[in-house]
Structure formats: structure tokens, C-alpha cells
Specification:
A six-stranded antiparallel β-sheet has the order 3-2-1-6-5-4, with helices on both faces. The chain has 152 residues and is α+β, with helices and mostly antiparallel strands. It has four helices and six strands, in the order ααβββαβββα. It holds the Pfam family GAF_2.
């Protein structure tokens, strides 16, 4: 996708979520929006930090791991480092958790409330190196809009 296409999606996020204060509803619609508009994905959704672990939240795709330890796998690493993880080949990522063996690349973006990571957006693709810098930047901006809509 191009940067301008991500700008359009970001405007859709703002239209969809402005005034929404329910976390589950917002995350469900956010994941559905991405699933409907991005190609070559096999899973998109959220994990939420609860009791010092990640717990499965709203998503689009096949069944997934219900719980992931902080610091484990791509999602747990994103939380531990408080940093986006863009992985071209998950099979080369030490400690990768294979919830779906069809996934080959992954983009995981932490989302925060008052600067504290409260969860991650996890996007998987069956293709190697599916996500580039444009995808990362565009989706990070969408996550910032999600944070602003929910937590001001």
C-alpha cells in the first residue's frame, strides 16, 4: 500500500472510533478495518496485557494462542521492548511462537495508555517480507489515532 492509502485508512479509523470509549468495540472494528483493506494477511488482531502476560483480544482470522508471556515470541518482545517488531521471516526469529504454521512474516505494534503498553496489534502474513517501512509507518499512525480516540 502507498502512504496516501494509509492516510485514507487513518481517516476511516478516526471516523469509526471518534467518540467510542469501549476498548473491545474499538479493537474489534479496528482489526476488521485492517482485515478488509489490507491484502495478503492471514491474521490481524490484538493481545492485551493482563496479569503480566498477553491475553487474546478481538481479532480476525483463525484461532490463535490465548496467552503469550511478556518477552516471549514477537508479541511478547514488542511489549518487553516497547517497540514495533517488523519481522520478515518469523522462522528466523528466536523464540517465535507458531500459533499458525502458515504465518511467515509479522508486524507487531504496541499500543499505550498514558505511555504504558497495554497491548499489541499483531498482523500476520503467509508471505515472507510482507511488511515494509510504509506499512509500518502507516499502521503505527493508525494505532496512534486509536490511542487518541480511546484515551485522549
Amino acid at each position: 500500500m502507498t502512504a496516501s492509502m494509509y492516510d485514507t485508512l487513518n481517516r476511516q479509523v478516526l471516523a469509526l472510533l471518534t467518540g467510542e470509549d469501549d476498548l473491545v468495540s474499538a479493537l474489534a472494528n479496528f482489526s476488521a478495518l485492517l482485515n478488509d483493506n489490507l491484502t495478503d494477511l492471514n491474521w490481524v488482531g490484538f493481545y492485551l496485557v493482563k496479569n503480566n502476560q498477553l491475553v487474546l483480544g478481538p481479532f480476525q482470522g483463525k484461532v490463535a494462542c490465548s496467552r503469550i508471556a511478556i518477552g516471549k515470541g514477537v508479541c511478547g518482545t514488542a511489549v518487553e521492548k516497547n517497540q514495533t517488531q517488523r519481522i520478515a521471516d518469523v522462522h528466523q526469529f528466536e523464540g517465535h511462537i507458531a500459533c499458525d504454521s502458515a504465518s511467515n512474516s509479522e508486524l507487531v505494534i504496541p499500543f499505550r495508555r498514558e505511555g504504558v503498553v497495554i497491548g499489541v496489534l499483531d498482523i500476520d502474513s503467509p508471505s515472507l517480507a510482507r511488511f515494509d517501512e510504509i506499512d509500518q509507518h502507516g499502521i503505527e499512525n493508525m494505532v496512534k489515532s486509536l490511542e487518541n480516540c480511546l484515551f485522549g
